[in-house]
Write a structure and sequence with these properties.
heterodimer; A: 162 residues; mainly alpha; two-stranded antiparallel ribbon; B: alpha+beta; two-stranded antiparallel sheet
């Protein structure tokens, strides 16, 4: 390997490292870079709608959810369940929509850990719930596709808890 | 006794005035009073720094926590409540970082005061600490008389805490982390909801520990 090539390689790896470092320091950037594949194979219309939902959902998440579930959806120890990689969230979008609308109390098990906290009721419109649900179901490695406002309106018709 | 108090204060003021070769020195916060002390016929001016007043509250193991609990330790204090839906989870996420960084350092402690002590009983705090996965000898969560906690918060730690029916969860409170030295003095106030501010706090903790370790040698 020539000296020039080694230098170039070092430069490239340095750049890669610094890029990955900067992407880690900003939640938004990391989010975008990681979740590109959620748009794979979608028709243009769905892709555009999903982007809109994700963008609005990110804002709403920040305002309503991130204090407890944290900026990367990681939750807090055994006090607040994670959303990132959550089997509970990914298994049942209807249940998740109802919880976003009505809050949650009592024991639930997420990824094998039992949680017993209280999530407050949030006063959100159906569209906002759909945007949040789409955002959390397609961020931090989660992938579920668009959950649109009509789906959510249907989900919310018969929630177990009101 | 008077002599003892004087000598203790003298040591404190001496250490406060020492400059460690241009390194960053943490300020001593709060109101200070200058008094004159007469010892053996000599009148000297001395500064009395703001210090955390005596307190006694129960922790998650039903053990008393007082200033003496933190003898020989620097500590980080905050005010929270377990059912808080706003900034507390962020503060606890940040406090866990501090816990992790100083877990093996016996000169460092953490202290979280509940501002909703009626709900946050010893049992509730015990469950909370357990779920957080932290050890009680390192990190005390305390509860007790509500007025006493609010009073201590306002007069000793200089933070705002109070009931507010309009606020989410029913309480308003400061998100501040207070750094207290081994002499009960506040050496820094940091925003416990901001990661960068907590990074600065952890750096300042190292500086403060160094200050004491230099004194010893």
């Amino acid at each position: 390997m020539s000296r020039k090539r080694i230098l170039a390689l070092a430069l490239v790896s340095f750049m890669a490292a610094s890029i990955s470092m900067t992407s880690c320091s900003s939640g938004d950037k990391k989010q975008e870079a990681k979740s590109d594949d959620i748009y794979d194979g979608l028709d243009e219309r769905t892709s555009i709608r999903l982007r809109q939902y994700m963008s609005e959902g990110a804002q709403l998440y920040k305002q309503n959810c991130s204090a407890c579930h944290q900026t990367e959806g990681q939750g807090l120890a055994a006090l607040i369940p994670p959303l990132a990689g959550s089997d509970f969230l990914m298994a049942d979008s209807k249940k998740a929509a109802c919880i976003i609308k009505n809050g949650q109390s009592g024991k639930i098990t997420v990824n094998g850990v039992e949680y017993d906290g209280v999530m407050p009721q949030l006063s959100l419109k159906d569209l906002e719930i759909a945007e949040i649900l789409t955002y959390i179901s397609n961020s931090w490695g989660n992938k579920k596709g668009l959950i649109d406002v009509n789906d959510v309106a249907e989900f919310l018709k018969d929630c177990e808890t009101k | 006794m008077k002599k003892l108090i004087f000598s203790v204060m003298a040591v404190a003021s001496l250490s406060a005035c020492t400059n460690f070769g241009g390194e960053k020195k943490l300020p001593i916060l709060g109101r200070r009073e200058v008094t004159t002390v007469e010892i053996d016929g000599v009148t000297t001016a001395d500064t009395i720094y703001h210090a955390i007043a005596d307190f006694r509250f129960l922790d998650q193991d039903s053990a008393w926590v007082t200033n003496e609990t933190y003898d020989g330790k620097i500590y980080v204090a905050d005010f929270f409540f377990t059912s808080c839906p706003t900034i507390c989870p962020i503060m606890k996420t940040q406090m866990i970082r501090i816990y992790g960084a100083f877990e093996d350092n016996s000169e460092v402690g953490l202290l979280s005061y509940s501002i909703d002590p009626e709900h946050d009983t010893v049992a509730v705090l015990h469950d909370f600490a357990e779920r957080l996965g932290v050890k009680s000898d390192k990190w005390h969560f305390v509860t007790g008389d509500k007025d006493a906690i609010y009073d201590l918060g306002e007069t000793s730690y200089m933070v705002v805490a109070g009931e507010d029916p309009g606020a989410p969860g029913g309480y308003i409170h400061s998100g501040a982390f207070l750094l207290v030295d081994k002499d009960r003095r506040i050496r820094g106030v940091y925003d416990g909801t901001v990661e960068e501010a907590v990074n600065e706090l952890m750096e300042d903790m190292k500086i403060l520990l160094k200050e004491y370790n230099k004194e010893k040698s």
